[in-house]
Structures are given as C-alpha cells and as structure tokens.
Sequence to fold (1003 residues):
Amino acid sequence: MSVIDSGFTLNTQFDVKGIEERVRRFWLENRIEEKWRRGPEKPLGRFTFLEGPPTTNGFPHVGHIRGRTYKDAVLRYHRLLGLWVWAQGGWDEQGLPVEIEVEKKLGLRSKKDIEKVGYDRFSLECNSLVDYYLERWREVGTRRLGLWLDLEGAYETRRAHYIEHVWAFLKDAWQKGALFEDYRVLPFCPRCETALSDAEVDQGYEDREDPSIFVKFPVEGSQDTYLVIWTTTPWTLVDNEAVAVHPDFDYALVRANINGKNEYLWLAQRLVPQLMERFGVRDYEIVKVVKGRELQGIRYRHIYLDQVPVHREHLERAHYVVTADFVTLEEGTGLVHIAPAHGPEDFEVARKYGLPITNSVEINGVFNELGGVFSGKYWLDVSQMVIKDLRDRGLLLRHETIVHAYPHCWRCGTPLIYRSDRQWFIRVSAFRDRMVEELRKVRIYPEHLRDRFDNWVANARDWTISRSRVWGTPLPIWRCKDDPSKILVIGSIEELRRYADYVPNVPLDMLVHRPWIDMVRIKTQDCSEWVREPFVVDVWMDSGVAWIASVDGLRNREFFNELYPYDWVTEAIDQTRGWFYSLLATSVVWMGRAPYKSILITGHVVDKYGQKMSKSKGNVVWAEDLFNRWGADPVRLYLLAKSAPWDTMSVDPDEVVDYRGVLSILWNVVKFADTYMELDKFNPRIHRLEELLGKGLVEDRWILSRFYTRLRNFLRYMDNFELHMAAREWINLVVEDLSHGYIRLIRRRVWSEESREDKYAAYAVLYHVVKGALIMGSALVPHITEYLWQAFVRKYEDDEVESVHLSRMPQVVEGYIDQDLERVFDTLFSVFSDIAELRNRIRVKLRWPLATAMIKVQDEGLAKGLEGVKNLLAYLANVKNVIITRELGQCDESSFARLQGKDYEVCLSRVVDKELYYEGLAREVVRRIQSMRARANLRVDDRVRVYLYTDNEDIVNAVARFRDYILGEVRGVEIVIKEAPQDALSMDWEIEDARVRIGIERV
Fold:
C-alpha cells in the first residue's frame, strides 16, 4: 500500500504540537477546509449556524475557547452526517468594549477627553485596535484551535453594508410605529456617559456596600412632627419631590423620646417596634393610627429648600404625601421618598400627580446648576455630603451600611445612576406576545434553563437603543432644525445619498461612522437643514441583526431565505438577556418570527479555586498560553469532557495532562495496529471484515458490539448537545475498550508468527473500529485524528477520502450489538480489576502466575457467559485455573484472598509453589528483554540471540524450564548462558534481589 503523504508517519515520538503544525500545513496546502465548506457532492440536507461574534477588544481566553470548541465540534459533527454546513465567522467590532480599550491606550478618562482628541482620530484608533485584535483572534482563537469558521467571508459589524441593515431595521420599525422618542428614567454609566438597556444592566450586577439612612422630613406647620423615610441613595434626596405611602397600610404617629426631647414620627405601624429598636429609642408610644390614604396631601418642608433654590420655584406642585401601590413593608419605614428624575416608579408617580421632574445630575454623574450647593460635585461625593449635613442638622435618625446587588456598567465596572433623559426606544412591549409565542417554538438546551429566557422575554420592556458615544452604528435619525417635531429616518446608504446635499469624500466604511456621518448635509423642500441625532446605536443591536446582516440579506435575499431561520446558535448563559434576546427582538419586530430553531446555552468558566477570572486578579487563563503548553487538541478534549456545556467549569490548566494522555493512548493504539498489520501484510480490501468475522474469537464480536453501542450513544449525545457525554463515550472507546481491553486480549494472537485466520479477523475488526473511532473523534480532536487518518487509514486504503473531515460518520449496525456479551465482558474486566487489587493486597505482581481464581456468580446467564470467556480471564489475571461457581466452598484466609464485587465474589489463591515461582522469574526475564528490544529500536519481526549471565540458581533453572516460552515472547533464536559479546547490547538487571546480566544481538 502506498503512503499518500510521506510527511505523516507513525515512526516518531508522540508530539502534539508538532502533529498539529503538520496537520494545519496539510489542510492549507490541500485546501481541505475549503472542500469541507463546499459540502458533500450529494448532501443529505443542510445545517445552518449563526456565529455569536466575539468582541475584538482583547485576546481570547479559556472562556472564549470553551464556547468556540463547542461550536466546532457540533459543526464538524453535522458535516460528518453528510449535511452541507453553513459556518460563517463573525466579529463584533463596535461599541463601548472597543472604546474603553482605546481610552486606556490613549490615556483618556472621560468623554470630554475624547472630544479633545477629536472624534476622527478616536474612530480611526478604534478601527486600528479592531484590526490588531482581529489578527490574534483569527490565529489563536480560530486557526490554532482548529475551528473551521469561514474567516474569509466573516461578517464584520463595522462595515458599511452591515451597518446598513441596522438602518433598514430601524426604518422598518419607524414605519411600524415601533421606533419612538421618549423622556424616561434610565440607567446611565457616568464614566462612559451613556444610557444602557435593561439587558445591559442585568449583566453588570455586583455586590456593593452603600449607605443606609433613615431621614426625617419636617411636616409643615409643626416644629416636632416628621415623615421618616429610608434610602440607600442619599444623593437623590437633592431631587426629592414627594413622599409615597401605601393607601391601604396602617400608619402610626409615634411619640418618641429622642435625646431627651419628644418628637412625633410617622411610620408604618407594623414596623414600629423593630424601627424603634434600630433607632435606639426605648421611650415611645403610638399616639394614633390612620390608613395611608388619610396621609395623602400632608405637606412637608423640603430638607434642601434653602440650599437648592429650584425647589422654591414649584412649592405649590410638590413636597407632599402621595399614595402608590408599589410601597412595601419589606424594608425601610413604609414611607418612600420620591425623586421622579431618578426612579422609574417615581417617574410614573410624578406623571400621575403632575409633580415636577427635577434632574440636577448630568450624564457624567456631576450635579449641574439645579443642584444648588451641590453643583459641580460628583454623585458619590454628594451622598457623603448629604449624610454629614443631615447629621449636623439633626435630621439623620440612623446611619448604617448595606451590602446589596447594585448595577454596574457591564464594561467598565462603574456603578450606574438612574436619571431622566430623552432617548430613542424600540417598542418591544408591542411585540412581546409574539416574541413569547415564537420562543416557544425554539428548542432550548438544556431545557431547565428555558425559564430564564422565557421569563425575561415575557417581561421585556421597551429597548433603549440610543447611546451617547462615538464608535458605533450611527442612529440614522435626522431632526429638522426649523421644526424639531419633523423626523427623517434613513434606511440605506443609497437613500442617504439621495437626500444628501453634501457627503464627505471618505471611504464608505468611514462615512457610516462619527464624525463623518455628522458632516453629511441634508436639505429638503420642507426643511432647510436636517441635523442628525447625536447618538450611536446600542452595540447589542449590531450583533442583534446578524441573522440578516451577516449574509447581506438585503441584497442576497434568496440565499438569506435558504439559511433563515438558522438551525443552531450557542453562547453563554448571560446571552439569554443579551445576544439571544437581541436576535429574537429584532427578528420578530422586522420579520415576525424567531431567527433560530435551537439554542445551546453554555456556562461560564472560573479558575481552579472557583473564583471569577479577571485581569485585575491575574487569574485569567489565556488561550495562547494553553496552546503553547499543551497544544489545541488536549485543551479541546479537556473542555469538552470535563463538564456539561451548561455548567460552570472550573479550569485548572494542570488537568489537561490527563487528556493529553488520552491522545497518547490513541496514538499508541494506532501504532500497535499499524506495526502488526504491516508485518503481516494486512489489506482491508482483501481481508474483509464480513468474511473473516465468522472465523474470529469472542473478543472480536465483543469489541464490535461495544463500538456500535458507543457509536449509538455518541450520536444520541451529539444530537442532544450533551457534548460532555459524547466526549466521554469516545474517550472510553479509545482508552477502556481498545487500549485496556481489546488490544490486551489480542496481543498474543497478533504476536504469533503463524498465519492464522483468527489473526486476520482480529486485524479486520481492529482496523474497522479504529477507523470508526477516528471519524467519531474528528469532531472533537481534529488535528490528531487527521494525522492518524493520513498515516494509518490512507496507508491501507489509498482510495479513501482525502481527509477524515471529508468522510462520513459510520452508521450503527444493530446486528453487531450484543448487550449480553457486553455485560459479560464488563464483568470480565471488573473481575480482572478486582484480582489486580487482591494481588496488591497480597503483594504478588501481575507478572507472577497464581494457581486458581474462583468466581462466585449467582446469575445463571452471567455465569454461563463468564464460563465462555474464562480462558481470557485466566490470561488477563495470569491465573492457571479459573473456576466459575455458584458456591465458593473452601476459601480459607491462609491460602486465599477474598473480595466482594458487584454481581460476584472473587476468591484468589495466594500460594506460589516452585513451578509458579520459576514461571514468574521467566516472565521477569522476558520483561527485561522486551525493554532492551525497545531500547535497541528493533522491529517487531527482528530476531535476537539472548545472552544471560547470573550466579542465581533459581533464575538459571527458570530459564531452562521456560526456554521455549521466553524465546517465543521475545522472538529469540537461542538463549546462551554466558556473558554477551562486546558488540551486543548488554545491561545489568536486578530480579528478585538477584543480579542478572542480559545481552541481546540481532541475528
């Protein structure tokens, strides 16, 4: 048989990284990936995948690689099934993530710093940063990983034709009445100076220690009566406009002796005892109790009426008690301070009662001129100033701290503030029912995580899409300068050019970014000048329209319709409220349907101690470091097999060594097969499995049955995205079934120099199973399986497909599966393992034969099956006589060791007589000679003359008695009891405390 590529050989040491480099060269030189992408000549169907684009603002780490390994395994698997696979790459290149990295690079601290640098330079720096990281992602996060996503045709969210799809979506939403402007309370990042959506807020919750204060609001017309409120945001008291109570709760006026003076406090009656204890007040009494609605209209003197003048301007419209159903008694006092500009519920109360909405906090968290004495101060500093001031004025009843989950910016980590502002929204609420209905049609893996996504969608609120930033998709909305009520929404670049009076002469990809888009001049008959709204679009909308923009669906409508909706998407669990959600929302609003048919929700990674990985902690495991240390395939197998895809995975790089060991075992299995098949001139075209199986032995039928059982399980697991179970099934096939099982059982057969039919039956079976295992494993570990396909399969079948990745998954042959036989062999290996444990207990090595092993089995069918394989057990366990019995009879401790197994009991003789002792010594001699053969790099069929010199009489007698056995095991022609000649390989050994010099020479 001819070797297709001499660069692939098994006559070398197992070197993972060298193997991977060789394979990647082969793929490139022979355009294998391109052929893979082209699909089978007659595909059985199609499998379409939509890539969740990684953000190009940093280097890939193990969390990225975990998800990308899942993607590749699933894509390769479906190609092996004979499907045409759509596997386009994609990159998320805009928004805050990129901007923040550029700010760090340029040493910028605020948006004002960006303005000083200039939007043009800043955008160009963002573009350059994307280029820089893209190269690392292409090389490390894709090529070295062995991930076959189409990089040449990858979509990029910064490109003009991609951005055009965001515009088209927004134009469609505008025409449907789903794009609108409104004044609402929204979360803002004061560092990034932009609003965030609910989904973004949900990604940034962290525990934070904040002040917890109880404050007295003086009731008008009284010198000693107060409304007591509780807040964890003292800075919002500056913009307070009312106090809310629940209309149906009971409220008590409490006389309290505070510092020797009686004061009267309004509190929820139920909370009085616990609050008095917290306030340290022992002398108190309830004067009267009223319903909350009876307090409505009570006016109070604003605590900053003198220091914040704006409150004097609306005295008649504010600073009184209102009622609201959202008030609870879970925490606080039952009276809630209302700052309409800083709370969504407060804002609604203000609309209901016509309260003023005072917002003295700017987008950067700094108080403006409305803040009076606090003007120019940062919001966090204002909180501390308020606490000190209230204490000094005797209005602070209690000051504590509280640790609670508080929203932070999902990218920069700054605590968020809530403030009222005018922004642009998508009216998701109008499409919520349809989104829920469409989501029901989607298969979600694992099913138990469906509720998380379902609940989020069922409660979805209108989507804030405007961002006060620079590097992003510009909001394609222009407002008439003459009449601000007139709005123009542009849906395409062609439409922009049609309306434009002036367009900057810059490349198209730059034109659709700031500041160049802001230089476009538009005039129409009904408006002398249109001014673009100074926003970019939420970056989640960029990736959210990938279902159509990735394939330029506006122009490639027919091809888009072939792909959409996509068969499968996958990302981490946080994307139920991120990318999965934005895909669903945009697709339902635009097309009325879900853009995907199935979702795999994956878990996050943590370090080996269970801690979240972060650059600041220095515990991030970088992908490149892992690959440099272990190679890609061991890392892939580790990530696939260790945890279920949806579980949080603790990553310990040292654990990868075990999975490198699995691949080393695979290498040795194939090398073993190749060594003996080449020696005996095995030819799978001549020595056909179907013709030889009837001449094989029971272990041949077992390994075939086990292979097809494993294959059936593997297919089921892969279909259900239980990738960890599929990987473990394959590992067990390679390690337990092939290496520890079948090869151990057939070693004697293939070592034999006789040209027996059962030997070729073993070769046919082994070749069949190994070939199938390589195809299965190619979805998991693409490099090593490709190498072995070239070095082994194409050596024996030069007409096989050019690459393992162009092959077809074997089909399960149910006729070969024998579950009863598999149970027998499972018990066989279990008994062998127990005998090995008993040998350790009685300190008799496996190489030393023992006389008897009795196996007590009550199950009649199992007993019968074991009777048929007891010769194999005798061989494995190195026992002269195996007895399968219903009763153990005499098994006394002086002569036997005993162990209780699952369905059996083992009784092993422990006495070694002279004959067994000599045989054990002979086996020890054989082991040393075999070691020397390996050291001398002898071929399997090389014959040797053995020289043995020792003054130990037992060893000499053992060699004499078992001469034929020794010669057969080491392929020797004779054993000479004397010193070896000088040109022979000679080594000193110690056998059972005796010194022995052994020499070998090839003859």
Remarks:
- DSSP finds 35 helices and 36 strands in the chain.
- The CA atoms of residues 603 and 646 lie 4 Å apart.
- The mean pLDDT is 94.
